[in-house]
């Protein structure tokens, strides 16, 4: 069956477009675009570089018309006569100031009108005389400024020469005493604790490898966001309880902040347990069926009594609706024979291996 063309709709659209065009022309004609205009003669007492027919005319910064004619004055070729056409409502007076302004650094010049209080006689259109030097371009102004600078330099050439000579004497003195100055600066640097910083030593947390056979696997998608922790634990430094500095740990750094390090190594542990169903970070996986939310309570070396590495986590498993389906506390500690970086990291590796194994077994049972 042949489709019928919507002639009425097309005709209505065409009529609406025609009415809109006529309305725009009417608005333009009655808001100063092509409304009533009055012409005035303007005389510039010098060159007007860059001024062209069609250039804008501004009154107190508002565009009111344009230049319609340009020519040399027949009685004096140094003068330039121009005709401007402006909106009739513009309050142009016999003593209105006329100038030439350059818009922008390299913009097109425009004629500027400003002020005026003397009303011309009825029927008489005054000839506006531009201020002397109104046509001076920015380039010429820059040349004049440089010429004045050059004059100042010439007038003060003697003192300038003496100043340069004094600078040379001062620099020669510095060159002769370079060794002493270097010694002074080195002493100041050492006194204020400066100098080349010691190289930091980075330690990583080892991912446990032997987590037993994957008797049960994750039956739903699981995400492990970055664990939460108090501000003290958002660090790469080794933490002690009681606090304080310990010899040998000044240059110690974990491979990442403690929460991010625990997140990364726990995901690695899940992969070692069952790579096919391992969880990912929330940003990698997107919406997951469940999330394993961790809060790090302790990750430190305790030195009260027998030295030991302590890790304490609070774990919750929540579903898509934010409902907690399981929660528990998991803690582990490992005795330290010696409080030094290598032994401390080994103790944390052993404690984390027990934490990861217990956490994985509990999670796969709950999900």
Detailed description of the structure:
- By secondary structure, this protein is of the alpha/beta class.
- It has two domains: 37-139, no CATH class; 201-366, 3-Layer(aba) Sandwich (Rossmann fold), CATH 3.40.50.
- The protein has seven helices and 14 strands.
- A seven-stranded mixed beta sheet has the order 5-6-2-3-4-1-7, with no helix packed on it.
- 19% of the residues are buried.
Structural class: alpha/beta
CATH class of the largest domain: Alpha Beta
Shape: elongated
N/C terminus separation = 60 Å
Low-confidence runs of at least 5 consecutive residues? 28-32
Task: Provide the CATH architecture of the largest domain.
Answer: 3-Layer(aba) Sandwich
Total E-strand runs: 14
In short, what is this structure?
The chain has helices at residues 7-30, 138-155, 157-176, 178-191, 258-273, 282-285, 341-366; strands spanning 37-44, 56-59, 62-73, 76-87, 97-102, 109-114, 127-129, 201-203, 222-223, 240-241, 252-254, 290-302, 308-319, 324-335.
Which key terms come to mind for this protein?
Rossmann fold; 5-stranded mixed beta sheet; 2 domains; 367 residues; elongated; transmembrane helix; ABC_trans_aux; 33% helix; alpha/beta; 7 helices; 7-stranded mixed beta sheet; 14 strands; Mce/MlaD
Provide the fold topology:
Layout (H helix, E strand, L loop, with lengths): L6 H24 L6 E8 L11 E4 L2 E12 L2 E12 L9 E6 L6 E6 L12 E3 L8 H18 L1 H20 L1 H14 L9 E3 L18 E2 L16 E2 L10 E3 L3 H16 L8 H4 L4 E13 L5 E12 L4 E12 L5 H26 L1
């Amino acid at each position: 069956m042949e489709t019928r063309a919507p002639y009425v709709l097309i005709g209505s659209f065409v009529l609406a477009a025609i009415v809109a065009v006529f309305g725009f022309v009417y608005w333009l004609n009655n808001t100063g675009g092509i409304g009533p205009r009055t012409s005035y003669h303007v005389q510039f007492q010098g060159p007007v570089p860059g001024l062209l027919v069609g250039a804008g005319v501004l009154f107190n910064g508002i565009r009111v018309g344009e230049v319609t004619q340009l020519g040399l004055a027949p009685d004096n070729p140094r003068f330039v006569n121009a005709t401007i056409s402006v909106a009739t409502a513009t309050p142009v007076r016999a003593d209105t100031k006329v100038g030439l302004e350059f818009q922008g650094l390299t913009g097109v010049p425009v004629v500027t009108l400003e002020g005026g209080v003397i009303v011309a006689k009825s029927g008489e259109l005054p000839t506006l005389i531009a201020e002397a030097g109104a046509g001076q371009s920015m380039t010429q102004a820059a040349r004049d400024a440089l010429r004045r600078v050059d004059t100042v330099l010439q007038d003060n050439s003697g003192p300038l020469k003496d100043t340069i000579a004094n600078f040379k004497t001062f620099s020669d003195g510095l060159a002769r005493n370079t060794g002493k100055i270097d010694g002074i600066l080195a002493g100041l640097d050492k006194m204020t604790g400066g100098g080349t910083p010691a190289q930091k030593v980075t330690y990583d947390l080892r991912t446990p490898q032997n987590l037993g056979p994957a008797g049960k696997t994750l039956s739903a998608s699981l995400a492990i966001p970055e664990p939460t922790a108090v501000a003290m634990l958002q660090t790469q430094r080794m933490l002690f309880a009681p606090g304080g500095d310990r010899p040998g740990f000044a240059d110690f750094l974990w491979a990442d902040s403690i929460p991010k390090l625990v997140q990364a190594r726990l995901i690695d542990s899940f992969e070692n347990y069952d790579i096919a169903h391992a969880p990912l970070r929330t940003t990698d996986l997107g919406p997951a069926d469940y999330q394993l939310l961790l809060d790090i309570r302790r990750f430190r070396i305790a030195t009260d009594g027998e030295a030991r590495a302590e890790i304490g986590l609070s774990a919750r498993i929540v579903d898509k609706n934010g409902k907690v389906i399981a929660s528990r506390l998991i803690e582990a500690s490992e005795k330290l024979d010696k409080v030094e970086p290598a032994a401390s990291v080994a103790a944390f590796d052993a404690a984390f291996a027990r934490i990861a194994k217990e956490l994985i077994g509990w999670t796969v049972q709950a999900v």
